[in-house]
Write a structure and sequence with these properties.
438 residues; 2 strands; Growth Hormone, Chain: A; single chain; two-stranded antiparallel ribbon; 77% helix; mainly alpha
Length: 438
Amino acid sequence: MEENMQVKQLMRYRWVIWGILSVSYIIVFFHRIAAAVVADNLMAEFGVTGAVLGNLGAMYFYIYMVMQIPSGILADTLGARKTVTMGCLVAGAGSIVFGIAPGINVGYVGRFLVGLGVSVIFVSILKIQSQWFRESEFATISGITSFIGNGGSLLAGVPLAIAVAMFSWRFVFIVIGIISVILSGMIYLIVRNKPEDIGFPSIAEVEGRAVRAAAGAKPDVIKGLKSVVSNKWTWPGFIAFAGLSGSLLSFTGMWGVPYLMAVYGFDKTRASSYTMTAMAGLMIGSLVAGVVSDRLGRRKLPFLVYGLSYLAIWITFVFWNTAKPPVAVLYPLMFLMGFTAPGFIISWAIGKEVNPPEIAGIAIGTLNIGGFLGPSVLQPLMGYVLDMNWAGQMANGTRIYSQAAYFKALSLCVAAIAIGVAGILLVKETRCKNIYYS
């Protein structure tokens, strides 16, 4: 009876932990997308080109990408609780620095600190999920986490545009920084790495696999990293994640709003509403992808269906009137773009399932590099292409690029997605079980 009561308490408390960590993930997504909405403000105030602006936006992704393996190591060794606490603290400081930046150089420092801080959050959340949720729930919970986190993308759309108009972009980033610092303290007080830390049975015991789970609580970091990197099944998901996530984040996180303002003549609020629609689609698609994968007991098939659908939407979007589809179809296209993109959440489950369970953090961190390698390369590359095709038009200190220039830049996203789909074709079907349990 007492054991059943403990299991019930475990099942309730895990949602408290997941809930507060999800709030931190909302902030991750806010920073990921916010640069697109304030792109014209930054270009005008700092007096920079599209290439420099692309690099400023990509700074977040550079450090995020580099930190994914260290994030996994920290989650596996130091523990997710302390890792996320420090991450929120650093991200909060970075947001404040960005908000008070007098010039582009300090802006880079602030953006770097934001990227450094938020880079450790998601892998730690997945590590927590692996300790507090059943294997058969992992993709579903990952989808729900992505759904909630993408709420930050919505906040970085029209609400951010309105807030910037009412106050200033600087004020908004300072406030977000203060909220992040407060949140770091709450995480330290509430979150625990695993059920056993507060006297509950482990999720492995609940699932009847305690003997296997007990084999190695503290992994050998170097050996674990070598195991993940040398595992041929790690890399197809890496490639797929890079192509799918890179294209979406390059569009919604940097160039989507400027594109819509330049090609369609929208104001910032209206342009933001379209990228916000894409993020709403991503939220719903993330939820569906995780649930479908777990319910089917398959990984590769739903991943491939999502990837091919996403490629088809992008081909339609870019090659319809050379990157200027009719306004009437923009909202549906944006929603479908977001809805079909998140097949990549299945890659997180695959990464965990094709590597030993005791190094789940390292495995997911390694895989997650792909998701940020994509935008790290694409965002500045798109900026260079735009600058190469710039006709010299300016407005309020901001470069205005033509439809033809955006067509060439957006075509890079199509190429990246095609590479991602090729990666999906090579992933291993795990049938939603860790292959080391078989």
